[in-house]
Amino acid sequence: MNPLVLFDIDKTLIDRSECHHQAFIHAFKKIYRVDTSVEVINYHGKTDPQIMHEVLLAEGLTENDICPYKNDFLDSMSEYFVANVKYDKIKVMDGAVTLLKELENRKVLLGLLTGNIEIIAYFKLNHVDLGHYFKLGGFGSDSYYRSNLVLKAIQRAENDFRFVRNKNNVFVVGDTPLDVAAGLKAGILTIGVASGEYCKEELINSGANFVLDDLSSTDEFLKIVL
Length: 226
Ligand SMILES: [Mg+2]
Prior knowledge:
CATH architecture of the largest domain: 3-Layer(aba) Sandwich
Number of helices: 10
Largest sheet: 6 strands, parallel
Bound molecules: magnesium ion
CATH class of the largest domain: Alpha Beta
């Protein structure tokens, strides 16, 4: 059985999306009337609903203020993103295209494991022509907690692609200790990439099974997953 490899998006496949940051700012203002941004918390590795929630708490809102408008917030953010992503300048990480092509050639089942809500994930990746590599995923729109996303993605692989999971044929690839923790909790293998805010040592200490500088060493990556 070919493996299932689940990729994080931000700081793993792409550098950053300014449009995604602006979409948060837009929705914070429109739905909650708060002038703020994701920068007020450490948002790396968190899901979009979790980022929204933590930022608003940091700004002094209460659960009662936040809860009734959560869905309106996500809708407003998506609307802004879909309308404006065409102006975004997104840099694809070194080696990502070569690696994805190679994995696709070798019939590896490719998925996403991202805190981005699904519509933003695909619009973002389609903007840089990467979306077509990914057949399924677990998204921020599936759950507040990243670890639940892993099981969601595996379930979709089993249901839609007759994927049969064993102890060592599912991998999660990501740039933060939260990506690693989500993989460990779900009992799959984890590949940390030090292309974001965290260095190799921090990723090793968080329990990653494998750690790479980035995605540019195709051979090294293939050796791990095949
Ligand atoms: Mg990331």
